[in-house]
Specification:
Layout lengths: L9 H4 L12 H12 L6 E4 L6 H13 L3 H4 E5 L6 H13 L9 E6 L6 H13 L4 E7 L3
Parallel strand pairs: 1-4, 2-3, 3-4
Helix pairs in contact: 5-6
GO molecular function: ATP binding; ATP hydrolysis activity; DNA clamp loader activity
InterPro entries: AAA+_ATPase (IPR003593), ATPase_AAA_core (IPR003959), DNA_Rep/Repair_Clamp_Loader (IPR050238), P-loop_NTPase (IPR027417)
Family: Belongs to the activator 1 small subunits family.
Length: 145
C-alpha cells in the first residue's frame, strides 16, 4: 500500500521543515532565525542559481513562523506561471488586505521566480508592498537580479 508522500518529488519529500534543518551559511540562518524570533522580519530578496535552496529556506521560515497554520498565513506563487498584473491585483492584494481570523502578526507572500514578472506586475506589486507592509511580508525569490 502506498503512503501519502510516496509520489512526491524528492525535493518536496525531503524539504526542510524548519530553519534548523536548512543546510546553508550559518550566519544567514541565524540572522533570519533571530529576526523571526524578535518579530522583525523584513521583506526578503533571495537570488542565485536554481537548486541552491532559496525556496526551501523561505518555506522553512514560513513553517517556523506559523507552525501548523503556515498554509493559511502564507501565499506562495510561482511568478513564472502567474506573472501578470491581474495576479498582483487579484490574488496578492486580496491576500494582503484580508485579516485572518484568530491570528495576529504578519502574513507572508512568497513570489518564486519573481524576476519573470512583467514590468506592469512589478509596478503593481510595489504599490501593494507599500500599502500592506504593516501586516504582510514579501519574499521575492529570483534566479537573476
Amino acid at each position: 500500500m502506498q503512503q501519502a508522500g510516496d509520489n512526491l518529488p524528492w525535493v518536496e519529500k525531503y524539504r526542510p521543515e524548519g530553519l534548523n534543518d536548512v543546510i546553508a551559511h550559518e550566519d544567514i540562518i541565524s540572522t533570519i532565525s533571530r529576526l523571526i524570533r524578535e518579530d522583525q522580519l523584513p521583506h526578503l530578496l533571495f537570488y542565485g542559481p536554481p537548486g541552491t535552496g532559496k525556496t526551501s529556506t523561505v518555506l522553512a521560515c514560513a513553517k517556523q513562523m506559523f507552525g501548523e497554520n503556515y498554509r493559511s498565513m502564507t501565499l506562495e506563487l510561482n511568478a513564472s506561471d502567474d506573472r501578470g498584473i491581474n495576479v498582483v491585483k487579484d490574488q496578492i492584494k486580496e491576500f494582503a488586505s484580508t485579516q485572518k481570523i484568530f491570528s495576529t502578526g504578519i502574513k507572508l507572500v512568497i513570489l518564486d521566480e519573481a524576476d519573470a514578472m512583467t514590468s506592469a506586475a512589478q509596478a503593481a506589486l510595489r504599490r501593494v508592498i507599500e500599502k500592506y507592509t504593516k501586516n504582510t511580508r514579501f519574499c521575492l525569490i529570483c534566479n537573476y537580479v
